[in-house]
């Protein structure tokens, strides 16, 4: 017995989901909401973790597209991290297979490329190149699985720290030159990290 398929009144399969992350908005567009609005109490709104769980269930049931709506979604703190987690739900396999046709086309129009020559695939370089696939994929799969279980505050903190780790690797391990523009960019990142950390610390003190 086949599973029921959700169809609209034009007999089109519904494989998308719209989820409102907030009913709040900075504007009062006349076609959308009244000048004086009564918003839902925050405790009645799904947490970001709960929204992610809903998205996971629908993706598992065949949903291919998820739209986040509001209100204005960007006024919801942490919505960017939510978008990243939802975007990662279908997994890396689909993204990889989407690149396969492009790679084949590139090989077809570049018959003289080194990687097209049969003798290339017997070299040490080819072996290392092939090994780069699982070496890159495994950490990404692990991150994808772990990110679903991390609090958004922790995930946001790690995303601030990651660029700094890359900078340290580039300068200390690979000896790359640190330009003034790069230093200014990371100064902003570090300032943001400091503000973010202090804010979390103050909020944690307020709970005690």
TrEMBL record:
Native species: Pseudomonas syringae pv. solidagae
GO cellular component terms given for this protein: membrane
This protein's cofactor list reads: [4Fe-4S] cluster
What is the protein name given in its UniProt record?
Answer: Molybdenum cofactor biosynthesis protein A
GO biological process, alphabetically ordered: Mo-molybdopterin cofactor biosynthetic process
Keywords attached to this Swiss-Prot or TrEMBL record, sorted alphabetically, are: 4Fe-4S, Iron, Iron-sulfur, Lyase, Membrane, Metal-binding, Molybdenum cofactor biosynthesis, S-adenosyl-L-methionine, Transmembrane, Transmembrane helix
Pfam families, alphabetized: EamA, Radical_SAM
Which residues span the membrane?
86-106, 126-145, 157-175, 181-202
Spell out the molecular function terms from Gene Ontology: 4 iron, 4 sulfur cluster binding; cyclic pyranopterin monophosphate synthase activity; GTP 3',8'-cyclase activity; metal ion binding
Which residue intervals define the domain Radical SAM core in the entry? 9-208
Which Gene3D superfamilies does UniProt cross-reference here?
Aldolase class I
The family database entries (SUPFAM superfamilies) matched by this protein are listed as: Multidrug resistance efflux transporter EmrE (SSF103481), Radical SAM enzymes (SSF102114)
């Amino acid at each position: 017995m086949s599973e029921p398929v959700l169809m609209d009144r034009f007999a089109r399969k519904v494989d998308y989901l719209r989820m409102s992350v907030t009913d709040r908005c900075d504007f009062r567009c006349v076609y959308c909401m009244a000048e004086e609005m009564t918003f839902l109490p925050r405790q009645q709104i799904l947490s970001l973790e709960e929204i992610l769980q809903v998205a996971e269930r629908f993706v598992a049931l065949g949903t291919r597209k998820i739209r986040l709506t509001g209100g204005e979604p960007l006024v919801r703190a942490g919505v960017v991290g939510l978008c990243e987690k939802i975007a990662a739900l279908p997994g890396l396999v689909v993204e990889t297979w989407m690149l396969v046709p492009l790679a084949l086309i590139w090989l077809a129009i570049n018959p003289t490329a080194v990687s097209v020559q049969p003798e290339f695939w017997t070299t040490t370089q080819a072996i290392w190149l092939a090994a780069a696939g699982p070496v890159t994929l495994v950490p990404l799969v692990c991150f994808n699985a772990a990110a679903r279980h991390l609090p958004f505050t922790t995930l946001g903190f790690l995303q601030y720290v990651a660029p700094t780790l890359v900078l340290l690797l580039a300068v200390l391990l690979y000896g790359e030159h640190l330009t003034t523009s790069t230093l200014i960019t990371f100064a902003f990142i570090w300032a943001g990290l400091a503000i973010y950390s202090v804010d979390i610390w103050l909020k944690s003190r307020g709970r005690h």
